[in-house]
Amino acid sequence: MGGADAGCVTTSVAELARNLWQHAGGGTITLHLGATPDDPWIEVQAEDTGPGIADVAQAMQDGYSTIGSLGSGLPGVRRLMDEFRIESEPRVGTRIIARKWAKRRK
Question: Helix, strand or coil for residue 106?
Fold first, then answer.
């Protein structure tokens, strides 16, 4: 994984940690490493037992915020990572999974 890809992962972890703190009062971030035969990857999972996200589609819109911020966090993580998904249930919690594939150089 090159420096630019590592920077994308680092920025994504920081943003997801900030979201856990600001929106759920805490949670966990877990990193998983894996690979296909041709390409390794790193996966970031952020999980909480907070209030959940009532409208995931709205939360993924640039500029949308429930706390008066810029509203660029989750959409930014989606752009920085190669794969991104949100599993959320109101009053139960949220899990965000984001994966970055290491682009092998030939």
Answer: coil
